[in-house]
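Final report, results section. Input specification for complex C-07:
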Amino acid sequence: MAVAQVIIDIPAQQTNRPFDYEIPEELSDIAVPGVRVLVPFGRSGHLRQGFIWRTQDKSEFAGRLKPIAQILDLDPVLNAEMLGLASWLAEDTFSFLISCLQTMLPSALRANYQRRFYLTAPLAENDPVNQLLDHEASGLIPDKIDSALLAHLKRLEQSQQLRIEYQIKQKTKIKQEKQYSGCLQMTEYQDLFNQARANAVQQRQLLQLLVAEPSFAGNVKTWQAQLPELKSSTLTQAVQKGWLKEALVEVYRQPEVESVTTTKQQLTDEQQAAYEAIIAAISDAQNQTFLLEGVTGSGKTEVYLDAIAYARQQGKTALMLVPEISLTPQMVERVQSRFPHEVAVLHSGLSIGERYDEWRRIERGEAQVVVGARSAAFAPLKNIGVLIMDEEHEGSYKQDDMPRYHARDVILKRAETYHCPVILGSATPSLESRARAQKGRYQLLKLTKRPNQIQMPTVNVVDMRQAEKVAGKSDFSLQLITEVKKRLERHEQSVLLLNRRGYANFIMCRDCGHVIKCPNCDISLTLHRDIQALKCHYCDHQEPIPATCPACHSSKIRDYGVGTQKIEQQLQELFPEARLLRMDVDTTSRKGGHQRIIRQFGRHEADILLGTQMIAKGLDFPEVTLVGVINADTSLSLPDFRASERTFQLLTQVSGRAGRAAKSGQVFIQTYNPDNYAIQLAAKQDYETFYQTEMRLRHQGGYPPYFYTVLISVNHAQEDQAVKKVYQIQRWLQPKLSPQAIVLGPTPRMITRVNNQYYYQLIIKYKNEPRLLIALQTLIMNMQGKNNRGFQLRIDREPLQFM
DNA sequence: AGCACGCCGACT
DNA sequence: GTCGGCGTGCTC
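Structure output:
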């Protein structure tokens, strides 16, 4: 009897091992590893989705095996490489196999479990179940249902007044579109036209078109291209009247863009040297990692594109990861125009269906070049020739829920499998990567110059302790404002950065000092003036802005801190004639909001772009000649050993936005710490000195890259419980560590309470602890069962956030 | 997550 | 004596 080991999708994920199932004879041909299956699970025998992990001849399991109910794929959705990658990922990130398998696939392939009830007897008029009805006698039972209502449903089921069915819906896969085509003779259309009422303008236009071309066909858009006034309802009516016939046609959701082919640009000497090193590794199938350290504007992208072109010439595929934020239309067009019809793009703006279509194009080999954000690291490419990660230092490459993977590690792993090179590119590499280049594990390639004699911007540090301020607007130095004014006069553009990391707008009472806090979390609420509400950035809590202080009823309650909205208002007062664009989480939260703003600014529809860190990347506009940093300091004072690194990166990146073309650029950095090394060196655009300085400090403090780190965090609704558990874990773990390992804590997390859960943590710094990783695997298993209800454990290897 | 098994309290 | 509370543990 053939047996399949199946990894099952159990919501609570209390198990991390496969379950054996019998493969029915008729399914034996297609029951191969990597296919999705439906299997009965548990006493209820309800179907759940799973993945075949392995197949074998017999089972070790003593009991009776249930058979696989259904196989969902004719071809496996995960090949051998992907299954191996999942297994490595699960171990590396201390996560469950099932969650790794799920994150590697587009969510369209994930099962959608739902419960429906069907009435078998009429309900009482006031029965609460009435609210759930969405059809005549049936309704959906929501996932989040209050337990009383669920219990009520179960009672009704027991008394046979209704029955509950469990269903697994596959999310829509194939998009279909209505196609309308003429189905009558020209003379018939002519007759209809003659009969049509004189005021039926739309119908007459439509018939006129059909008289001219009786077999015209196409979707709504095609028809509207001919008749711009045409409404889709007119087409529907025409179908009803028998003038047209309609049919459903399968379409890809992202039709391929018609693009012009652009060719290779002339490379500078430095670019050429980097290119040659990379292509040698591609043609020799060497698993070599390159760190491409190039100053802003030095043309790293051109090197990437040429490397991809070389891989394509060799008949190989290529993957390029970029941070979500720089996945702009300009960027995508640049790749698409270089490799027409070969590119698949994966980013968060895609709908589930669009994402699946792109995934399918890659999987079928129809797209050989993939550009995407973090999760694109799992793109189902085969025969990869080169893997690229742009802005390699970016924190967004690490996922911050399970599995907590870093896309850099994923592509390094894939490169091992494909024996191909990896290019990590950045103007400000992470210290981890730069240190590896120092040790020779990565090969360092440098681009120190901008092509075409374009100058690096000149950077001025403005000492805000002594600078003359604009009257009444203490956030602006006179110097910066004068520069902005000059740009407005010359019709050039300015970019202003508000460094808001770790800084928020909060509400405080001037009389008693009371700060309005979130009822669920230990954090003050942030003011959002556009929606007239106070919001908590850690849970979903939201409340109206109070008119008086809730503690002392004084009316002198006002907001503190610097927010983009406030700065925007002040700028508008200073320059009433200037066209301003604001870019922050509030203005970009809607789909495409980010790209809309960038496009607008690119068309020079605004003079000043004001924004948070998101403006530091991805924009490349020739008219920008001024970059101003309003407050460089805020990110320096955070209790995180990476504070300097992040500040340096942010300032360097944003400075690089100035003077990308013929016009030279200037940068003004306002700060209260003008002597700080991160600020000084960012002003000089001197990465190498920053690297040396920061490495010394990391060495003294015993931080990465000199030590590895693991963060272990426990949370519970009761604070004493969380404390007890974290100490218990420490006592258990300590004896398993060598004396060289350093344990920090246990300590409460900086924001101890979030969503009414108390968080306590332990940080372990180590160099070589073979027993630690095994111990942590054990810990995660132990925490699942028995007396650990109500606790959540989180293990984060090489965490980027320590707070 | 479901569902059953199992060991304690208030009832026909 | 029994019915049922939901704590505990298993699901191929």
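Residues 173 and 353 of chain A are 6 Å apart (CA to CA). Residues 10-12, 14, 41-44, 46, 48, 113 of chain A lie near DNA strand B (CB under 10 Å from a C1'). This concludes the modelling results for the funded period.
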